[in-house]
């Protein structure tokens, strides 16, 4: 009997409209845990395929801690090859999809093939049906959700994916985005509009008493964390709580990263939204932090990244426009970071600011692929390339940087560069120690020591995404505490350091997949502007351009620590040491 | 980098000058000095995913205390102070310098006690974590030793070894802390003065060994701004580590402020004070955990649910955990501190307040800690009397 896991994965073929259940060996679970780890395991054999090849799978996995009393257990991972970056593409997403999947008796699903017409997948406990969704083409994600919510949790794409927007998302339960890598486009390529899932099962727990005790230890740490539970923490204000801090640290990306200070920050901060819109707390299933903020009328308060990029990055001073931009992106199924970044890139190249009043109209043009802004749907990097000005895109591996100026946190600079899914703050989240002082503060203006810190934290977060849990919890707790939770749930005796080893395996496999598709040192780089004096107006800032030699040295150190060669490529010996098959 | 923590360890009386062996690993491994233990520690590092390690023999009286607790435990020491309960969980022991055993223990916990040889602690982000864990283990063992002795005395279970060790340890204690100097005088009516006064009070609190570097926080109100030490900052190095927090809540920059921000704001709201000092002086913590109520139905939950009105020498003792949860000390301290010089949180530490500057909170921290120490030995003496 398995504890924690269900022991079943649904394999659904949309070409033949058929499905089967795979029951993996227990050793596979022990090696990759669940979530991001298990999804990567099943993606690896197919990673050489084009993202729109019918045989390219889209993988959706929960983890052993999903649907347990473990703190923050309600997330799931969506993964495939990214249409935006060409790297692996994955997203850890909240809502209740993962919980319902687990309750339906599944650890995950692997979807391949391409339907001849638009379809939806409907899962209810052991029943899986593939149904026509032709009538739903063109529906926004909230329209889809409204029509399907009685079927359980809903993952749906909107018009953006159907109109080939490279940064299209899958939206879960109306408010939660499986974002960043353009995974919505994978659904569209398979003619898959939505998935619903509902279950009634329970997760078997090996030792409920130990789980309760381990949970209490984590909850105690979370209560002690100012970032999570404090008066100004994310439980109170959502992730927008970071807005003032980024401004105070001169790290707020402004005017497409040409400045680092936004003069109107004080009037665009989380407190201002809180006062104006008076949202209530909500959040992922089973989570007590409740960092999602929704108004009485169902409007979602933007996350920090959205709040920052739809204000400072594009020069917008109107909170209502940020709210609407956020809503439109979710309705259309578009990534807010990439959408705002593409607008900023357009403004820099064209020299024509988009007025606040016009932002929503432009976003709709992008989503529907019409009008003079339709070509922005290709994303900032491809757009800048097409204009002959590639340096105007502030992206790594074609994915736009989130709202942390890397000149203000050099660990973040390295983490953006080496992330396996393109510029991503969440892979190693060095902001935790460089800005938020957790678990201890590090010198944000030094590369010294950062290579190993980034590597270790990438491994930690790979585990977090695989358990599955929320990274915010790790502002307070560590794998030391989560190992006790894992052992209590699964019955597998394990330590925090054992889990880290699994995290290392997961990250290395991702490097291997990217290497298979030609990614190497040349791709682990930052946009030129961060190294150049004249590319930015830093006169109002304490920041300086990044020293390229120091960056390159840190990158080399990272490769050494990660067990890659100096071109950033995996080596068979290290893969073997980690128990990975060479691909 | 190494020098900073060598200085802290020695200045805090946590180790002898020549003892700390520290390693830091990025792409390459560096040591603060040569030592015959390096090959062993290199194997430990290879067995873990870490970036820093500290191996040192604690100075007295910590060494004697830790050796005794290790000898009389069954492989793991279970202190009940707040630091251990929240961050360390328990203190495992390795009887030998066996690499395999040490690695096995460190895979699970942040530090290991090797009786008579020292403590090994590590960091995954910085050497500071190794230092904090080392310091916390010393603190937790000190508190446990003196708490256990009082409990055993009260229950008639002090054996020869315990009594002998206790007598040795008492002889090695630091003299009672005293301070005859002056602090920056109030009113602290400019930001610069506030920062200087906080820096001075924090530094003196550590220099006088009232607390270890990381065990405490400090704040000062100026108009509508509360200046407060950042989370995880060192009281003896507050430069650049003080957050100005608008008290009207219009900015979230206080997200990096001390986890006790809510308690500080609550204290100001309840008392109208302007300065607050919080530390973890040892005898205040030890005595806060000394309770002779027999058959109490809250036993084991004293730190969160003690329903008794308790005091030590007139200073209230209240339950409460770090931070802002349901059982957070922010719910108990502000009310309890009204009309008192301070308040002690069960198993945790002491809050003191002032109206103009840091002289009163600083001197009361001294005074209350010394009172608690005197009271501890008075209780011991009473229990030893026929």
Describe the model.
The complex is a heterodimer of chains A (583) and B (386). The longest helix of chain A is centred in the last third of the chain and has 21 residues, at 496-516. Chain A has helices spanning 26-32, 35-43, 97-103, 141-148, 159-162, 183-189, 208-223, 226-229, 234-237, 243-248, 270-277, 304-313, 319-332, 336-350, 356-368, 380-386, 410-418, 431-434, 450-467, 479-490, 496-516, 548-562, 572-577; strands at 9-13, 18-22, 58-61, 76-81, 88-93, 108-112, 119-124, 127-132, 153-156, 170-172, 176-178, 192-198, 280-282, 292-294, 395-396, 399-400. The two termini of chain A are 32 Å apart. Chain A has a domain at 9-198: Aldehyde ferredoxin oxidoreductase, N-terminal domain (Aldehyde Ferredoxin Oxidoreductase,  A, domain 1), CATH 3.60.9. In chain A, the strands form four sheets. A six-stranded mixed β-sheet of chain A has the order 2-1-6-3-4-5. In chain A, strands 8-7-12-9-10-11 form a six-stranded mixed β-sheet. A two-stranded antiparallel sheet of chain A has the order 13-14. Chain A is α+β, with helices and mostly antiparallel strands and 583 residues long. Chain A is globular. Chain B has 386 residues and is of the alpha+beta class. Chain B folds into two domains: 2-172, L-fuculose-1-phosphate Aldolase; 191-384, Class II aldolase/adducin N-terminal domain (L-fuculose-1-phosphate Aldolase). Chain B has helices at 2-11, 38-46, 62-72, 82-88, 99-106, 127-154, 160-172, 191-207, 261-271, 282-288, 302-305, 333-336, 359-384, and strands at 21-25, 29-31, 52-56, 76-77, 91-92, 111-114, 118-123, 216-222, 225-229, 242-246, 275-279, 310-312, 315-318, 342-345, 349-354. In chain B, the strands form three sheets. An eight-stranded mixed β-sheet of chain B has the order 10-9-8-11-15-14-13-12, with helices on both faces. In chain B, strands 2-1-3-7-6 form a five-stranded antiparallel β-sheet, sandwiched between helices. A two-stranded antiparallel sheet of chain B has the order 4-5. In chain B, a hairpin with a 3-residue loop joins strand 14 and strand 15 (349-354). In chain B, helix 3 packs across helix 6 (127-154), helix 3 packs antiparallel against helix 7 and helix 6 packs across helix 10 (282-288). At the A-B interface, helix 7, helix 8, helix 10, helix 19 and helix 21 of A face helix 4, helix 6 and helix 9 of B.
